[in-house]
Automatic annotation (TrEMBL):
<protein>
    <recommendedName>
        <fullName>Translocation protein sec72</fullName>
    </recommendedName>
</protein>
<feature type="repeat" description="TPR">
    <location>
        <begin position="159"/>
        <end position="192"/>
    </location>
</feature>
<dbReference type="Pfam" id="PF13432">
    <property type="entry name" value="TPR_16"/>
</dbReference>
<dbReference type="InterPro" id="IPR011990">
    <property type="entry name" value="TPR-like_helical_dom_sf"/>
</dbReference>
<keyword id="KW-0802">TPR repeat</keyword>
<dbReference type="InterPro" id="IPR019734">
    <property type="entry name" value="TPR_rpt"/>
</dbReference>
Length: 215
């Protein structure tokens, strides 16, 4: 029926119980047999899709129409982040990690119809903060992973996360990676003082290692 060039108003009807759509009886005598056959095929495909959607079970159910952002969830995420910050200021870094983790869990499980940009804003800060807490515990691999996740959520305007991963890589002795990472960070963040200083420190360590090898 897709190759038709004219518009025809076709009387349709819907079954109140099954919700299946079909052509009204008058269509059988109004249109040609070929037309009715094509119409029947298209309606069957539509009804089949309807039945398939109704057969889905959680978590694959069709989401409800878009609704405003749940303010309670946003408030809880902010509260968890602030609780993590409070624990960090008390030097209770392991507890801070837990609070940031809970905040991330809540932010990353927002319904799919809520704005993705909101999720990115929430998780980039939480990942970056948790990276810093990991660094205070000397957990460089964990800090590097969280800082990278923060950058993935927000590449520009996120100098702290660029710095923190670079610092973790340097502390792990992965100097070439650290130099490359910090250089990329400067491309996004411009002349960021902390990144410039870190790059100099990394290059200084690379120079020292080269001198040791050449000695």
């Amino acid at each position: 029926m897709s190759d038709l060039e004219t518009f025809d108003f076709i009387p349709l009807q819907i079954n109140p119980q099954s919700k299946a759509i079909s052509a009204a009886p008058s269509a059988a005598t109004t249109y040609s047999a070929a037309f009715n056959k094509a119409l029947e095929a298209e309606l069957e495909a539509l009804n089949s899709l309807h039945r398939s959607l109704h057969a889905l079970e959680p978590p694959f159910i069709v989401p409800p129409p878009p609704v405003p952002v749940n303010p309670k969830r946003s408030a809880n995420i902010n509260k968890l982040r602030e609780s993590g910050n409070a624990e960090y200021r008390k030097q209770r870094h392991a507890e801070a990690v837990k609070f940031y983790g809970l905040g991330l869990q809540m932010a990353l499980t927002r319904p799919a119809w809520e704005p993705s940009q909101l999720v990115r804003e929430e998780v980039h800060a939480l990942y970056s903060n948790r990276a810093q807490a990991h660094m205070q515990l000397g957990k460089w691999p964990e800090g590097a992973a969280d800082a990278e996740a923060s950058v993935e959520a927000k590449r520009q305007g996120n100098a702290k996360a660029w710095y923190r991963r670079g610092k973790c890589l340097m502390e792990m002795g992965r100097l070439d990676e650290a130099r490359e990472w910090v250089a990329r960070g400067l491309e996004f963040e411009g002349e960021e003082k902390e990144l410039i200083e870190l790059l100099r420190e990394v290059e200084g360590r690379l120079k020292e290692e080269k001198e040791k090898r050449d000695a």
